[in-house]
Q: What sequence folds into this?
């Protein structure tokens, strides 16, 4: 499977995840002037090739899954409630969705969440960037 195919499967799975039913859109690549919140952006970061055995390659792709919320309630922007998702609630829902399908429906050997970084520079927007490692195989030459 090619890296682009793995990213496409990840997008489809996040769009259909029941844990993320409140997310307005899932986008591939960073955008300017987003207007629909909450939203997710999938951005590839790196691709490492290893274990080139019998014309099969094992690859590890690092992907950033970036979540954005627009929350004007200052007391609920970090930890929300049943009506308002805070940034930590949103991140936890994303982790639940990823944990429920670690092989991305067979597109990957495994996935692993390595870290989350939070951003809060422009109130009332808050964001997180969750780093996900996706390990998958491809046949050499098919790239």
A:
């Amino acid at each position: 499977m090619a890296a682009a195919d793995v990213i496409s499967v990840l997008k489809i799975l996040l769009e259909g995840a029941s844990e993320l039913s409140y997310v307005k859109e899932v986008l591939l690549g960073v955008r300017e002037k987003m207007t629909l919140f909450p939203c997710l952006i999938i951005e590839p970061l790196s691709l490492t090739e290893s274990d080139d055995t019998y014309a099969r390659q094992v690859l590890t792709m690092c992907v950033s899954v970036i979540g954005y919320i627009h929350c004007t309630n200052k007391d609920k922007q970090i930890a929300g409630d049943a009506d308002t998702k805070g940034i930590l609630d949103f991140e936890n829902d994303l982790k639940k969705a990823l944990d429920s399908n670690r092989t991305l429906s067979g597109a990957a050997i495994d996935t692993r969440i390595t870290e989350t970084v939070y951003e809060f520079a422009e109130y009332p927007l808050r964001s997180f960037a969750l780093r996900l490692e996706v390990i998958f195989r491809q046949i050499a030459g098919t790239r």
Q: What stands out?
A: The longest helix spans residues 3-16. The CA atoms of residues 44 and 98 lie 16 Å apart.
